[in-house]
Amino acid sequence: MEKHDHILSVEKKTDNRFLNMYDLQYENKVGGQGIYHIASRGASIEELKLKTHKNKPDGVIIYALYGPKRDKVVMVRQYRFSVDDYVYEFPAGLVDAGETYGQAGARELKEETGLDFTPVKADEMYSKPLFTTIGMTDESCATVYGYASGKISKEGLEDNEDLEVIIADRKEVRRILKEENVSINCGYLLMHFLCHTTEDPFYFLR
Hints:
Strand content: 25-35%
Number of domains: 2
Number of helices: 5
Helix content: 10-25%
CATH architecture of the largest domain: Alpha-Beta Complex
CATH superfamily of the largest domain: Nucleoside Triphosphate Pyrophosphohydrolase
Mean pLDDT: 93
Radius of gyration: 19 Å
Shape: elongated
Low-confidence stretches: none
CATH class of the largest domain: Alpha Beta
Largest sheet: 8 strands, mixed
Oligomer: single chain
Number of strands: 11
Distance between the termini: 41 Å
């Protein structure tokens, strides 16, 4: 049987509320050993996906269209410490215990933007949790799709959330993709937003 890399031991290095660091002692396919560092939303070693082998979503990303013609998309322009700059993203957040993807999406959209959310049905292959930055973390996020309505409000924001709600049409989306910092999941879905030519803006979910 062909040899492959495998984990020898795991050590938790931090004890934080939302994100922790772990050191993995590993052996590679030719017998060499080393330490690999990962970040995880898991609060304990037992909760890491390398232990459970279950892809339970840590968070949810909300792709919401807005307006009577459904020709605008809801984004946030949020300050991120990792780049000391603002990044255009979709509203997103962690999934609380017992919540469905849709429930988490509606709650997070309301908290971040003040808008209400009406989800559309999507096959599991489009909404299942996908890994975000797998080289550094086991975090995965599910995506929910739907329509936003109501008025923008910042009342639900936490003190450490520095963000601006953006309602963008196609002209503004093109400018953002050309000129601004954009998260990769947001960028790919904005490409769908730009390219659909049918009356159904969620044609790609069918």
